Amino acid sequence: MPEACRTAPPPRRLVHRLPVRLRQHWKLLAALVVVTVTLAAAFGQTTIRPYITGDVAVMRSEITDNIAGTVDLFDPAVEHSLVVDITPAEYQAMVSAYESDGEKKWVTADVTLDGTVISDAAVRLKGNSTLMGLRGDFPPPGEGAGPAGPPPGGPPHGAPGAPGAGPPPGDLKGDPMAMFHNADPEDPTTLPLLISFNENADGRGYQGMTELSVRPGTPVLNEALALSLTAATGQPTQRFAYAAYTINGQTTTRLLLEHPDETYAETLFDSPGYLYKADANSTLAFKSTDQSAYAGQFKQINSAEAGNLAPIINFLRWLEAADEDEFDAHLADWVDVDSFARYVATQNLLINADDMAGPGQNYYLWFDLATKKLSVLSWDLNLAMVGDAAIGPDDKVELPPPPPGVNLPEPPGGFEALFKGNPLKERFLASTEFAPAYHDAYWELYDEMYADGRAQALLDRIAATIPLTDGLSREDLNQAVQSTRDWIDQRVNRLEELRPR
């Protein structure tokens, strides 16, 4: 008989079937079992809040290869240019992926910004309603979609052209619906793009940015002016620049917009925090304490490795359970109320119906780790300053209807599905507790934006930076400037009538 069999002590044979580490720490295990049983007996009927992963510290992202460029991209005193070259195969792959199933596929491209060549950058399509023409979701320019007439509540993402509306946000050239169907794969200048400097090269950035958005339409003065007015009032927004834009040999004028990324999040406020983007399909509703229930609802922009949606989930659970008294008494424990009052007032002053309550759910959430409060940041202002200029501070801002003769096909789920609203904004505006803060913020911001010709002066400065190209003539630019100027005058005249004396 082997020596090992003779010397193995029979009384401990069962114990040795357990793993070595478990045998070594059996006392600790026994203690944990006792504690667990005790807690179960004491708190068996108590709901314990599940722990959601995520470090309280913000993990900062670093750009290790920061391309300096020749000039500051956002210097308005400089003429800017952007050239994008995509091989035919890569271009077709990008378009085909979206046409087949809506995938926004990254493809490789060479990008030249203000003369600086960035090889092997990545580009993909960007947007929702502006890309619908690629999938045949809208009729060709100038054609309707049957006898049904304009949809109730207006089309997806609105349509300029209603009385009092200002400049349309795109290359409309007489067709107010062109922003929805002018995405043409035969004309790459019509496709809104997102450029990534680090998708194909980890750590690479351009002047501290990892992404840059090429906005659709020209000259989109309304968006540039709305961004400028938001910045002028000290609220977080995005930087922009106009550039002569050439893609695969075709040239036009385009607005380039800073796209919020990890580095953007790190520059927003003095204290650290988490930045989240609301998806176009999101709803500000509590679903579960399980973070996976919010997939496709909110995207964490910085410290994404931490996967910490706890600030949003905890707030949504409170918001759903809070009655009117609780909402009024404790909203300030969860939300920076003063900042939110300014955000909501700004959206009304700019007549932006596609904000956090619009069909695009266009907003970011910032959770400040110092104050433990949420703030709302504006995003995607391409439909600001095009609605009814007569809207007052207590009027609901809605997307303008299509002009006569323009009919739209009904989207899946019906038109009502596009207008989800937002419970936080709606409850805030309906609350008598927060009405004074909202109205105070409204008229303070009115003075900062419109009083003494400030919006008009900003418009002139912006227009002076816009390059003329094959896609934008001097006549078209002058017409857009005058249209915007007329809208501002209408807005100021109406608000002066409504202003408390």
What's the topology here?
Blueprint: H1 3-7, H2 20-24, H3 26-43, E1 65-67, E2 80-85, H4 88-101, E3 107-113, E4 116-125, H5 178-181, E5 193-196, E6 204-206, E7 211-214, H6 221-232, E8 240-247, E9 250-258, H7 262-265, E10 273-278, E11 298-300, H8 310-321, H9 324-334, H10 337-349, E12 363-368, E13 373-378, H11 423-430, H12 435-449, H13 454-463, H14 474-498
Parallel strand pairs: 1-6, 2-8
Antiparallel strand pairs: 2-3, 3-4, 4-5, 5-7, 7-9, 8-9, 10-11, 10-12, 12-13
Helix pairs in contact: 6-13, 10-12, 13-14
Task: Give a brief rundown of this model.
This protein is α+β, with helices and mostly antiparallel strands. The protein has one domain. The chain has helices spanning 3-7, 20-24, 26-43, 88-101, 178-181, 221-232, 262-265, 310-321, 324-334, 337-349, 423-430, 435-449, 454-463, 474-498, and strands at residues 65-67, 80-85, 107-113, 116-125, 193-196, 204-206, 211-214, 240-247, 250-258, 273-278, 298-300, 363-368, 373-378.
What's the N-to-C terminus distance?
A: 107 Å
How many domains make up the 3D coordinates? 1
Strand content: 5-15%
The parts where pLDDT drops under 50 for at least 5 residues are 1-26, 32-55, 139-178
Shape: globular
Q: Total number of β-strand segments?
A: 13
Helix content: 25-40%
Count the DSSP helices.
14
Q: How are strands sequenced across the largest beta sheet? A: 2-3-4-5-7-9-8
Main sheet: strands, sense, barrel: 7 strands, mixed, barrel
- Average per-residue pLDDT, rounded, comes to 82
